[in-house]
Design brief:
Elements (H helix, E strand, L loop, with lengths): L2 H18 L4 H4 L11 E5 L6 H17 L3 E5 L6 H10 L6 E5 L2 H9 L9 E11 L1 E5 L9 H10 L5 E4 L4 H13 L4 E4 L3 H9 L6 E3 L1 H9 L3 E6 L14 H5 L7 E9 L4 H15 L2 H9 L6 H4 L4 H18 L6
Parallel strand pairs: 1-2, 1-3, 6-7
Antiparallel strand pairs: 3-10, 4-10, 5-8, 5-9
Helix pairs in contact: 3-11, 5-14
């Protein structure tokens, strides 16, 4: 390559970046004066590599394209999400520079663990991202390779507390196990983890017999034929896992529905103009076919009632209250 062609290549690359970095018109028109003048933080309350973390990092990439702003993803972990949730609710400044990319596990933390120190009303949802359903996984080389979920559950019934299952305490991971045990008389040995990805790694290492997680957490391992999904906690089979039965199918039920709903929150009292700008930035990113495809590759689906919502915070609160009914019914929450 000649010096002249090299200079043209550098110029073209710089020009292409400048063009691609131009914010979307619908985002630019809402940009508040002087904001942002520093990077925006997307807070994730679970470890790197997990489903929420993957969701946030993909979103940050396309939100940067839509806005031209710099976005950093920061993992504030501990207490199976409690540390990060408490930070978002009570410590983060309501200035628009801190957003939380969260899952609906935040509802359980607020209702069962926060002990009145913070509440869902301390945060405001500004954008819905996607949904996914909790999935049970077995190792393709472990003792239950080739076994169905019902066959493994039968072992847990015949030999109580011998089947080791990964759990994030106080979350849907635990609630699904309880439902299965109540339905079948099985008894599992629970092994606690901070997130889905570490649990899947433990499954590969032979430290648990069943892991639980979401598609983004186990997809690479499934593609490598290291793990196999054996049951999905959804109302119907997922298009991306069409051969995997649902727990509702297994037990002729309706209540085995445990899903993650990923959405974005900001601390209450964040200025309205900044909220509108941040929401527009995320909505523009979510219209990008490339991001949609990325999320779909991870097994996500998009709940139309939330994608089309005109009052997202209220609609999510209604779902949170339905979960609250489960906590009351199971004695976790006293009226």
């Amino acid at each position: 390559m000649t010096m002249r062609s090299t200079l043209w290549a550098i110029f073209f690359a710089a020009f292409s970046w400048a063009v691609s970095a131009q914010p979307a018109p619908e985002v630019a028109k809402l940009k508040p004066a002087g904001f942002p003048d520093q990077p925006i933080e997307y807070t994730v309350v679970y470890p790197a590599g997990g489903g929420v973390d993957i969701t946030a990092r993909l979103l940050a990439k396309y939100a940067e394209q839509a806005s031209g702003d710099k976005i950093l993803v920061n993992n504030r972990t501990g207490g199976a999400g409690m540390v990060g949730h408490a930070y978002l609710a009570k410590q983060a400044k309501p200035d628009g520079y801190t957003l939380g990319v969260v899952g609906n596990n935040i509802w359980g933390d607020a209702m069962l663990k926060a002990q009145g120190k913070w509440a869902l009303s301390d945060l405001e949802a500004i954008a819905y991202l996607k949904s996914d359903s909790l999935t049970w996984l077995a190792s393709t080389t472990g003792p239950f390779s080739g076994k169905t979920a019902k066959e493994i559950i039968q072992v847990a019934k015949d030999k109580p507390s011998t089947v080791r299952i990964a759990v994030i305490p106080g979350t849907m991971w635990e609630y699904l196990i309880e439902q299965v045990e109540a339905q079948t008389g099985a008894k599992f040995l629970r092994v606690p983890f901070q997130g889905g990805k570490p649990a899947i790694v433990a499954l590969l290492g032979g430290n648990v017999d069943i892991a639980q997680g979401f598609r983004g957490e186990f997809d690479s391992f499934m593609q490598a034929k290291q793990v196999m999904p054996i049951g999905v906690a959804s109302a119907t089979r997922l298009p991306s896992l069409a051969d995997v039965p649902t727990f509702n199918e297994m037990f002729n039920g309706q209540d085995y529905i445990w899903r993650t709903i990923h959405f974005v929150v900001v601390p209450k009292d964040t200025p309205a103009d900044r909220k509108a700008y941040l929401a527009a930035m995320i909505q523009a990113a979510m219209r990008n076919p490339e991001l949609i495809a990325e999320y779909q590759k991870l097994g996500a689906y998009f709940d139309e009632s939330l994608t089309q919502s005109k009052a997202l915070a209220a609609d999510l609160d209604a779902l949170a209250q339905k979960e609250r009914e489960f906590y009351v019914k199971t004695g976790r929450l006293k009226l």
